[in-house]
Amino acid sequence: MAKPRHPKKNQQQTAHKTKTSIPQINFEKLISNKYTGLVFAGFYFIVVLVLSFVFHKVGDYGIETDFFWGYVPNAKKFLSGIIPMDAFRGPLYPMVLGIFGFVMGDFFNAGILIGVLSASIVLYVTFELIKNIFSPIISFVTVLFLAINPVFIQYSYSAGTDMFFNALVAVTLFFFFKNKELNYRNLILAAFFGGISYLTRYNGIFLISFVFVILFVNFWKIDWSKRIKSVILFTGVFFITFSPWGFYCLSEKGSFFYNENYKNIAYEIYGKGKISWDEFWFKESSKITSAGEVIFRDTGLFLTTMINNLGDHFIDDMDKLLGWQIGIFVSLGIIFLIISNPVKSWKSSETSYYIINLSFFVLLLLVFYSERFSLFLIAFYVVIAVQLFFSEKFYLKKFIPVKLSYLIIGVLLIFTFSKSYSFNSLNINSGPQELLALKEWYDVNVPDEQKGKKIAARKAHVAYYLNMDFYLMPMTDSYEEFIAKLKEKDVDYLYFSTIEASMRSELQFLLNPKVNHKGLEPVVYFENPPAVLYKIIRD
């Protein structure tokens, strides 16, 4: 006789089989995958590039001033066969911009593309770098915070050297830390990218801190003969990479390391808070001729300024670069890092990473603060904060449950993303939109024979959009002298808007084109915001 069947038991068994057959996602394995960083960076590239081209139609009057003032003219010089020389920056970015601009037919869009591409490279190599030095989970969370950081996004779509330089430095660190053991090929690549970082911005010289790391931290655990050989190899390739530029500077300017960044240092020490930016650069900067003069004119003031900047720059980084919602955890992370017996783990890649980043922070103490200068430090700060929750070396992890750690990280990510969305929604199209209207009017209504070759303004944007050479509005003691200077420099047009009025308050009356201004003829004007294009009347 057949045994009775039990449908409920069979159903339970079937349900159990169905439940256990669902594939489980291994999160650690997912973020450790060699393609994860690449996919993440590619997604960021597509999203930010589309948003940039849709909303960022005109450069702003802040960080993109240098782009229109210096980089575009130098890119045009490069395309015409002239090697661009700038007193404050290396020649690489204008050359790259020239190539991209030639291919795309528009320098501003080329600048945006370079920025977004550079940001995506930063995300990828930072993901791999932090994963290699710390852990996959610290790497993943760090890159998440980096990708949604308001300043990082801003400089992704902003045309300029900031993100481009950031990418080169990040690649330098990527190759330097790529192997746990000494690898000469990667050391050469690190030195090469370090060299071209210097060719982009001269503060790339901070990468010489690698020499200290190789000799004294020695995370590769090699003997002294190999350390010395590695230092010679790194410094040799580093200097050889930019030496053609150095010899060119020597022949043209008489100095292998020619640059005038000591004037930026001079403003930080002797000008800031005492005179305006324009007054310093028009009148005082020419009186300073060397870095030694900046240091020894008042050595006490120099050292005091550096010490004061140590705290001021850190506070500004926490406030403006990261936001205090993360800055609090960075501060806690530094405290825990100090008390977690750092001497015991001195010879490690973690220590090396800290030293290299700290050397960059110290170098920035020489100049006035701007969050864009500290862009490279975002990942460094976030790593310190994130380790509180995910590193066994930090005591805090022992007292916070895993679920609470993820909850805190989730709240911080949401808050940071919210701040970033609000900030960049306002910033991405904050440039002078009236310039697009002026360009459209000028192209249609001004005959070719009346189009000018040189235009004066406070910002170079208008020169780019009207396809003229830029002349910086002079500082003079009278209106008559102002007009005389414009004529002396063969200026064809003067553009005067709210930005010019704010920087040249004595000429604010030029915002009113309905009043006769001797030597000027109004061509077109806008009322909201007020702006006037004047033609210079020749005698």
How many distinct beta strands?
5
Quaternary structure: single chain
Order of helices and strands: HHHHHHHHHHHHHHHHHHHHHHEHEHEHEE
Q: Report the C-alpha radius of gyration, rounded.
A: 28 Å
- The geometry reads as globular
Terminal Cα span: 124 Å
Tally of helical segments: 25
What structural class do the secondary elements suggest? mainly alpha
Residue fraction in strands: 5-15%
Helix content, binned percent: 55-70%
> How many structural domains?
2
Uncertain parts? 1-24
Mean pLDDT: 89
Major sheet: arrangement of strands: 2-1-3-5-4
**Largest sheet data:** 5 strands, mixed
Topology:
Layout: H1 7-20, H2 27-32, H3 36-55, H4 65-79, H5 92-104, H6 107-133, H7 136-148, H8 150-157, H9 162-176, H10 184-198, H11 209-217, H12 224-253, H13 262-271, H14 277-284, H15 291-297, H16 299-322, H17 324-339, H18 349-364, H19 378-390, H20 396-399, H21 402-427, H22 434-445, E1 454-457, H23 461-465, E2 469-472, H24 479-488, E3 493-497, H25 498-503, E4 520-527, E5 530-536
Parallel strand pairs: 1-2, 1-3
Antiparallel strand pairs: 3-5, 4-5
Helix pairs in contact: 3-6, 4-5, 5-6, 6-7, 6-8, 6-9, 7-19, 7-21, 8-21, 9-10, 10-12, 11-12, 11-18, 16-17, 17-19
Task: Give a quick set of tags describing it.
539 residues; mainly alpha; 2 domains; five-stranded mixed β-sheet; 5 strands; globular
Describe this structure in words.
There is one protein chain. The protein is mainly alpha-helical and 539 residues long. The chain folds into 2 domains: 360 residues, no CATH class; 103 residues, no CATH class. The chain has 25 helices and 5 strands. The protein has a 5-stranded mixed sheet. α5 packs across α6, α6 runs antiparallel to α7 and α9 runs antiparallel to α10. The radius of gyration is 28 Å and the shape is globular. The relative contact order is 0.09.
